[in-house]
Design goal:
Blueprint: H1 17-31, H2 44-55, H3 68-79, H4 101-125, H5 130-141, H6 144-150, H7 156-175, H8 177-180, H9 184-203, H10 207-226, H11 233-265, H12 278-282, H13 288-292, E1 303-309, E2 318-325, E3 340-345, E4 353-357, E5 378-383, E6 390-396, E7 404-408, E8 422-426, E9 443-447, E10 453-455, E11 472-473, E12 475-477, E13 489-496, H14 502-510, H15 523-536, H16 550-554, E14 560-564, E15 571-574, H17 578-603, H18 611-632, H19 648-668, H20 673-702, H21 709-714
Length: about 725
Amino acid sequence: MLGFLKEPVVVTAKINVNLVALTVMGLISRLWGLCYPRAVVFDEVYYGQFVSLYMKRIFFVDDSGPPFGHMLLALGGYLGGFDGNFLWNRIGAEYSMNVPVWSLRLLPALAGALCVPLAYQILVELHFSHCAALGAALLILLENSLITQSRFMLLESILIFFILLAVLSYLKFYNLQKHSAFSGSWWFWLLLTGVACSCAVGVKYMGLFTYMLLLAIAGLHFWHMIGDQNLSNVSLLCHFLARGLALIIIPMGLYLSFFYVHLALLYRSGPHDQIMTSAFQASLEGGLARITQGQPLEVAYGSQITLRNVLGKPMQCWLHSHTNTYPIRYENGRGSSHQQQVTCYPFKDVNNWWIVKDPGMQQLVVSNPPRPVRHGHIVQLVHGITTRYLNTHDVAAPLSPHSQEVSCYIDYNISMPAQNLWRVEIVNRESDTDVWKTILSEVRFVHVNTSAVLKASGLSGASLPEWGYRQLEVVGEKATKGYHQSMLWNVEEHRYGKSQEQKEREVELHSPTQMDISKNLSFMAKFTELQWKILTLKNEDTEHKYSSSALDWITMDTNIAYWLHPTLPAQIHLLGNVATWASANAAALVYLCLSLWYLLRRRRKIYDISEDAWQLWMSAGGVCGGGWVVNYLPFFLMEKTLFLYHYLPALTFQILLIPVVLQHLSDHLCRSVLLKSMFSALIVAWLSSVYFVYCTFSPVTYGQPALPLTELKALRWKDTWNILIRKQ
């Protein structure tokens, strides 16, 4: 029974020495001196703020993309014991001792290091020689710009890692297709493709470009499978469902999970939640939640409410009034109603309170039982402090003369009667009998007499002059097509009014609410709102000293100064390996010209290379050349501030194209032994030049050693490069 113990248990394994050596060299190149400089480097000042907010569980919104990349950076801080206490306000600021610099920079460095063996494996899976694969890995290893970007708390190296992992996984899956379909390894690589694509998109939306490329390639491959008569209809259906599950359903689920974890971690109110809706803010601990906790849910006649405009950008504001009136005449000579001003005020104030009144009754308190206001009901809105009614009439607004002025009505005993009836329209209602709910309902107020809609027009225009205290204009918008968010309002603070006397009511308006009711949003509601904010909330793009255009990237006519030592000439720049960039451009041009030549010749039934070589050439171009195109051309359509580091994913694919072209030239154009020997010698000389350029620029890649001024000036190979020279 124990006979198996008579023989030793032997485990054998194949070790690819090339792969191990490349991984080790990649780790050394990216991890060496990782804590230097112990100061904030370029965009670390940006991403570091988010890491601190994660450590403190404070909610934030970053319009640059999804949260997965930020969470990975925060994971490094968590593993290093970072408490989040550091002021990220200046590039070059020295890190305090509580900041685990090595830990914060570790994950981007590891991702950058692993890109080296990934490049090797991609070329192997494309059926190129190990020599070509080794060349691709060495080019990635010696690319100065990729080294610089991966050694700091930045996201590009993580993005490129997941992009390359997705490409490699799909190639491995595809190569298993013919002989091992639906095997364990087949499923593993297919599922890993979807996971890596989702992670790439979760780091930055730039990952979507490669994801779309892989979906297109997968679709093309499946189209070819449809024509395979050896596959049954059932088999084709299984293949289709497997790809749909792994490449669409799972990535979507994983993408949602990033936001789920993000929202679960950031449960505290912070400076960024003001751009979210009141319902979202109320779901966070502290902030608005402290104010709104316990409010009545249903708005009733007699309710005391504050009305927040749903748009919330460029700032949040509340419907507001005060005792001051509109001037009799404006500066342009137009007249006004001289009624009490109504504005949208970007701060919480007692003058933001209004009372919902039933036009058929005089009481300003909630009855027992309360009578809820429903969609379509007619109400009057009474200003809580001045007790004047919200009103509009056919008088031009101060800043928007094509819209009606909104005021609180003052009876001057002239021929301008009050027009203060408003119809409540709940835009996000589920039925026409829906009750107006605190925080949750988005409401339009339609003026009964004129059909004008209450609108915070000041959110998209200028503020009122000094007579309006620079507050935001509110108008009655006559054109009511659609539901622009500036026309929508939600009740934020709410209490049931109990005091009929004005003095008692003023005291009531200053006091907090007491009733207890929960208004937690579902995850999907929070995800939808947050996703929409990320996609639509754009900071004002300002010209940056180191911003550039997409045309500047190909020839590297620009650079970025990442860090400068406060006293020494030591500095770090985002600069690429000139030899590699020039070679990548040449390889792309050669590939394009050769492909066009082959296509023309094949059209004439002239076949210069075998069908297998042609398929290899086209598949490699589809992956490497296609990866460059989809990661580069979209930037010509983007209206945003661009930097050189945006080109790095495209550059990575372009670098992979170099050994593809070189091996093709060697195999099909160098037909004699002499030509092959000469070509090999040229490749060795070219690789030596790549290594020379890497060594030359390594002082500004790693920031050390500090070079004397003469050597720094010598590094300015192009007049457009901004190498920092201190005046003596």
